[in-house]
Each structure stands twice: as structure tokens, then as C-alpha cells.
Backbone:
């Protein structure tokens, strides 16, 4: 049946409080109220917005970032904790699906994490960026495949990736294969310059077309005063300008509202969910347009803890990962068959053995 749902989505472009994580949380809660007053049912925030994105690591060498890195630890978010409780309460009170980017602290490590709250306040997903980019590798640890999944929410099936994870086609395909209807993209914003915004637009519009889903993209904004505080060097401050492109894109690759490229604001657009099927009727990358016998994805979606008990290994070693495209036994059998086929072809090409 045709999906007749209409979903109002909001993408938030605001500045963090670079002094206090609690201040940033207050801005998040205020933005949720503003978006809800505009009729929004889904609200997306920028990458690691709480307490703030580590812009300092982009313009300063690692040896000079120790104090700021430690300060980020002090204000980072523990999940679950007071921050998730506050956002959960706001989501439940206003009936909002919320996608929030945070710096997650897990004991002695920080992670770039994305949280998806359902409209009843339930935290449906906590995922970590699988590979931090460039300077970010000095700040965050790596995520694993357990977060590469789509969750059912009040507004539909929602998936999320952070920044240059969108340049990993296999990560995107993992979400596409779970039939995401709304994809939330999060970028830091206020970096690199206009070229970053141009690349962002190409990236999110392409994913909308390829996945046949809506894309809601949110980027952060830095004021002139904040840039000056991050770096007194005018040349370095130029690296903290531009790069904002908060936008909402349809499955046909069209903008549903004028993108925000500067300043603060809440971008709102209505998503006609019938467009998902309209697009996929023509091209379903994980259905009738796929060729799994030629090209397929193997995803290890198990959590990767630093310690595994021997008993746990014994219990799970023969169990395929949930959502994996093949299991280990099948892989070995296929490899053996392929090796035998190669041996036979080699024998044919060489011809009969010659007698001395």
C-alpha cells in the first residue's frame, strides 16, 4: 500500500557553549521546544554537539591540545546519565524523535557518538563513529559494526552516520540494506571553508538518491568570538569558517527547504513518505537493482569488547553474527570450492603431463 504518512522534520544549526557542557545542553533543550512549536516530529542536531565539537584539534598540533582535550573529558557525556535523561524527558514530553551528536565518555576514552531517542523518550540507538577522521583520531576511539543499523521510531525507520562516514560506501550500504526511510547526517560545520559545504551537499544528495530515503543534515555554527577564542591566529581562524550546510533532501535528491549556510536557525520541512516507494520503484539498491550473487556486503555487527571470556568464545564461535550476510563455515566452504575450481582450471590450461 502507498505510504500516506507526512512527517515534519527539523534540522538545527546553532552554536554550542564552548565554556560549559551544561550550557550546550540548555541550548539543545531550547531548540527542541522551538522545533516542537513549529510542529516538528523529528529533530536532528550537529555532530558531537554536546558538549562541543573539538575544533581546537583541527587548528592546533597535538602537543598543544592536552588541556583542551582534558576539558572535553570533563564535560563529555556518560550514557546513560543526566544528559540522556534530560533529552529523553524532552522527547517524551513533546513527542519528538531526537538524533543528537555527543562526545561520549566511556571511562578513559572518548567516542564520537550518535543517539537516537524515540518519541516516548526511549534511547533506541547509541552508535559510535567507526573511524574518526584525520585530526579526530587524536581525540576519539573507534566504534564497531554493532551501531551500523536502522531503528524503528514513531516517524519511521531512522539511520544515522557522522561526517565522512558518508564517504564509506559500505557503511552507507549497511544502513540502506536495513531499509532506512529517514537518514540523519551530522557534520561539525564551521570548518574548512565553502568547499566543505559543497562536498556536503553532493554527499547527502547522492545518499538520498542511492538509498531512496530522506536525508536530514545538521551542522554546527561558530560565532566570530568563538573562533577568536579557539585561536588568536587570524590565519588559523580562516580554517574555522564556512563549511555549514544544514539541509533536508528528498529521495529524489531535491531540497525541501532553502539550506542554512550561515548563522543559527531551525530548518523545517515536511516529508511525504510516499516518495520513498516512488523512488525505489525505479531503483532499489538493496532490492531489484541489487546483484548479490556478484556484489555483497559482509558485516560483523557484533560488539567488540576489549575482553572476552573463554566460555563466551566457546558459546558464540559457531553462531553467525546477527545481520551478517554469511557465516564463517559458509565462507570456508566457498573458499575450498573456489580453490578446487582454480586447480582444475590450471590443470586444463597446462594440458596433459608430458612423459620424459
Residues:
Amino acid at each position: 500500500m502507498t505510504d500516506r504518512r507526512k512527517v515534519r522534520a527539523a534540522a538545527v544549526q546553532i552554536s554550542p557553549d564552548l565554556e560549559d557542557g551544561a550550557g550546550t545542553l540548555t541550548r539543545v533543550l531550547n531548540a527542541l521546544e522551538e522545533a516542537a512549536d513549529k510542529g516538528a516530529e523529528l529533530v536532528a542536531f550537529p555532530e558531537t554537539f554536546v558538549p562541543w565539537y573539538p575544533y581546537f584539534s583541527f587548528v592546533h598540533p597535538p602537543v598543544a591540545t592536552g588541556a583542551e582535550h582534558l576539558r572535553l573529558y570533563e564535560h563529555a557525556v556518560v550514557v546513560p546519565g543526566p544528559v540522556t535523561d534530560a533529552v529523553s524527558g524532552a522527547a517524551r514530553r513533546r513527542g519528538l524523535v531526537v538524533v543528537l551528536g555527543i562526545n561520549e565518555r566511556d571511562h578513559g576514552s572518548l567516542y564520537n557518538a550518535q543517539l537516537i531517542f524515540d518519541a516516548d523518550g526511549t534511547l533506541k540507538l547509541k552508535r559510535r563513529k567507526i573511524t574518526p577522521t584525520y585530526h579526530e583520531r587524536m581525540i576519539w576511539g573507534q566504534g564497531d559494526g554493532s551501531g551500523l543499523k536502522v531503528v524503528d521510531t514513531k516517524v519511521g525507520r531512522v539511520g544515522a552516520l557522522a561526517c565522512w562516514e558518508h564517504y564509506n560506501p559500505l557503511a552507507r550500504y549497511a544502513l540502506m540494506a536495513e531499509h532506512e526511510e529517514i537518514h540523519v547526517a551530522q557534520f561539525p560545520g564551521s570548518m574548512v571553508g565553502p568547499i566543505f559545504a559543497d562536498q556536503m551537499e553532493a554527499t547527502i544528495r547522492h545518499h538520498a538518491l542511492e538509498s531512496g530515503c530522506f536525508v536530514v543534515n545538521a551542522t554546527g555554527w561558530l560565532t566570530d568570538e568563538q573562533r577568536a577564542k579557539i585561536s588568536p591566529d587570524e590565519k588559523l581562524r580562516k580554517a574555522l569558517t564556512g563549511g555549514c550546510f544544514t539541509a533536508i533532501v528528498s529521495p529524489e535528491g531535491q531540497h525541501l527547504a532553502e539550506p542554512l549556510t550561515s548563522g543559527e536557525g531551525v530548518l523545517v520541512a515536511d516529508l511525504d513518505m510516499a516518495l520513498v516507494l516512488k523512488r525505489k520503484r525505479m531503483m532499489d539498491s538493496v532490492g531489484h537493482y541489487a546483484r548479490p550473487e556478484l556484489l555483497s556486503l559482509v558485516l560483523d555487527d557484533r560488539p567488540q569488547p576489549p575482553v572476552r571470556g573463554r566460555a563466551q568464545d566457546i558459546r558464540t564461535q559457531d553462531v553467525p553474527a546477527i545481520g551478517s550476510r554469511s557465516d564463517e563455515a559458509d565462507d570456508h566452504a566457498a573458499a575450498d570450492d573456489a580453490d578446487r575450481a582454480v586447480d582444475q582450471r590450471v590443470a586444463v590450461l597446462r594440458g596433459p603431463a608430458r612423459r620424459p
Q: What stands out?
A: The domain at 6-282 is CATH 3.60.110.10 (Nitrilase/N-carbamoyl-D-aminoacid amidohydrolase). Residues 51 and 72 are 8 Å apart (CA to CA). The chain has eleven helices and eleven strands.
